[in-house]
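seq as requested:
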Amino acid sequence: MSHGARVIRTGVSSGGPAAPPAASSAGSDAELVDGAYFRSCAGMLKVAQMISLLVGFISVNNSPWTNYSAYSYFQIVTMCDLVMILFFYIIHIFRIYRKLTCVSWPLAEFLHYLIGTILLLIASIVAASKSYNLTGLVAGATFGFLATVLCVLSIWSSYKVSCITQSTNASV
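struct tokens:
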């Protein structure tokens, strides 16, 4: 018996068969934008992540700082994470993953969420510990934690990680 962990993509990926474009009177514009992604769970999660990151960034930016390095790190992490989530949102909305098949989009998005979530959690912990009960800084750290939870939820809903037991009962 061998045990191994496998990551199975359950959302939209470039590896699966392409869905036929929806027939509409808009012509080629209907093929350009994926309107169903706006209303999908993954699309709404990305929008919620971007909003919480933006609110956290604005809250920290408009507050008096007591520790420059802690909050500049928080701002850099939130903005980089926001830009990357926006990038993947645009990739899905305009179906760019179908045209650029040389990139493993599910793997790229998984690695982004994994690294970005860890960095965002660290930044939120540092921001919360250095907030000194200033309301803007506490709000920024809170929205950082909210964005972290939403990123974890996005990873959990997009990927199914399971341990699979393989039997070695091969009859020859």
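The radius of gyration is 20 Å.
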